[in-house]
Amino acid sequence: MTAKKATLIILLLIVGAFLTSRFYKNLFPQEPVFARIIFFGDSITKAGVKPEGYVTLVANALKKEYPERSIEVIGSGINGNKVPDLQARLERDVISKNPTHVVIYIGINDVWHFFAFNNVTGTESEIFEQGLRDLIKQIQESGAKVVLCTPSVIGESPDSQRRVNQLLKEYAQISRNVAKTSGVHLCDLRVAFEEYLRKNNPNKAFQGFLTYDGVHLNDQGNRFVADFMLKNLTPLLNQAEKSEKN
């Protein structure tokens, strides 16, 4: 076979595949995606895609809540990530996937890495704040809505005077301020954790209620976070339904 004939055959195969694909799409049109939700964060979100993880629980609940709708839920978490890490991979892991909603759950490592960790450091508060604003700006410009979470806990005694806990409270407040001034939806996980732990952890144990190590979610913690996320996401999806009908 000559090179010319081989090239012609390859071109015909490509054209045939293209036409077949278009014919299939026209014959069996797919329902447009109603919502594509990306959870963007660190190791908590990475673990959240496991069968009992909060991301999976949210996905399963939304399928039941909106059985006639096409909803995609994607977990994009990487161990040890901080705000600058999210900025570095925002285009690749979020914007390129064309989400309708992005849930940013970050901040624990930005604080935790200031304490007792080798070869890493936390994120200075100014960089943390500016990084959140940059993430929000770019996501909004892509056309997606943002849900910004406050960082939850480092230790399950929310009123502990340990410096790491007090600093995390400060960073949670930064997240609240950024959400308010940026006009995005705030998912105040920190407050939800505080209320639950003050009621259910009277002996002020460091772990064992919503986490297995003071930070990472156990099964109860995953259910707790999933339920709280759903309370925050459902009104936004209902709003999108109303807008679609008008």
Structure characterization notes:
This protein has 246 residues and is α/β, with parallel strands linked by helices. It folds into two domains: 1-30; 35-245, Rossmann fold (3-Layer(aba) Sandwich), CATH 3.40.50. 54% of the residues lie in helices and 11% in strands. It contains nine helices and five strands, in the order H-E-H-H-E-H-E-H-H-E-H-E-H-H. The protein has helices at 3-27, 43-47, 54-65, 83-93, 108-112, 125-141, 163-182, 189-200, 219-245, and strands at 35-41, 71-77, 101-105, 145-149, 185-187. A five-stranded parallel beta sheet has the order 2-1-3-4-5, with helices on both faces. Helix 3 (54-65) packs parallel to helix 9, helix 4 (83-93) runs parallel beside helix 6 (125-141) and helix 6 (125-141) runs parallel beside helix 7. The model is unreliable at 19-30 (pLDDT under 50).
Q: How is the secondary structure organized here?
A:
Blueprint (H helix, E strand, L loop, with lengths): L2 H25 L7 E7 L1 H5 L6 H12 L5 E7 L5 H11 L7 E5 L2 H5 L12 H17 L3 E5 L13 H20 L2 E3 L1 H12 L18 H27 L1
Parallel strand pairs: 1-2, 1-3, 3-4, 4-5
Helix pairs in contact: 3-9, 4-6, 6-7
- Stretches where pLDDT is under 50 for at least 5 consecutive residues are 19-30
- Cα Rg: 22 Å
How many domains, as an integer? Answer: 2
* Fraction of residues in β-strands: 5-15%
Walk across the major sheet and give the strand order: 2-1-3-4-5
Could you give me the name of the CATH homologous superfamily of the largest domain? SGNH hydrolase
Rounded mean pLDDT score: 91
Give the CATH topology of the largest domain.
Rossmann fold
> Helicity, in percent?
40-55%
